[in-house]
TrEMBL record:
Species of origin: Methylobacterium brachythecii
Residue intervals of the 2Fe-2S ferredoxin-type domain: 1-75
Pfam families, per the entry: Fer2 (PF00111), Fer2_2 (PF01799)
The protein's name in its UniProt record: (2Fe-2S)-binding protein
Organism domain of life: Bacteria
Length: 168
């Protein structure tokens, strides 16, 4: 069995107990994906699995068999930055940067969820055709990604800017 990681087919680990996080970091040396709590509480390990955000510490590598994994290393097209990467720089959306790969992967999936009309806990009107973008929506939808440095305001501003540009 094989996994596609950032467009390249790689072998699954022989040991079915290996997490996707460990396989990415230890097996494939893609260390952009970070280990935080290693138990599903911080979001540092967030990657995309078939375009949806998952916590790679709680996902077995074998669960990604035959599927597409995107990590922070593969998010941008070509040599340029992904719009979220540029916006995080512009808005000081990080300090130590440890949470940043997970934040950006989560944000890219979250913007798609928003565009697809998936409601959140704070969506006031579930019947509305288009969910109104607000910082409250972004905070709620990004609440699974913790930043120990307190860069949350910059993170929200960066995501808000990219979401606004997408909607324009
Ligand atoms: S390392 Fe996976 S959620 Fe914290
Ligand atoms: S920038 Fe340091 S944990 Fe978020």
């Amino acid at each position: 069995m094989a996994i596609r990681v950032n467009g390249t087919e790689v072998a699954s680990p022989d040991d079915a107990r290996v997490s996707l996080l460990d396989h990415l970091r230890e097996g494939l040396h893609l260390t952009g994906t970070k280990v935080g709590c290693n138990q599903g509480a911080c979001g540092a390990c967030t990657v995309l699995l078939d375009g949806q955000r998952v916590l790679s510490c709680l996902t077995l590598a074998v669960q990604a068999d035959g599927r597409e994994v995107t990590t922070i290393e593969g998010l941008a097209e070509g040599d340029g930055l992904h719009p979220l990467q540029g916006a995080f720089i512009e808005h000081d959306g990080f300090q130590c940067g440890y949470c940043t790969p997970g934040q950006i992967c989560a944000a890219s999936a979250m913007l798609r969820e928003l565009a697809e009309g998936v409601p959140s806990y704070v969506t006031a009107d579930l019947a509305q055709e288009r969910i109104l973008l607000s910082r409250e929506e972004i905070r709620e939808r990004m609440s699974g990604n913790l930043c120990r440095c307190g860069a949350h305001n910059g993170i929200v501003d960066a995501i808000f800017q990219v979401a606004t540009e997408k909607a324009a």
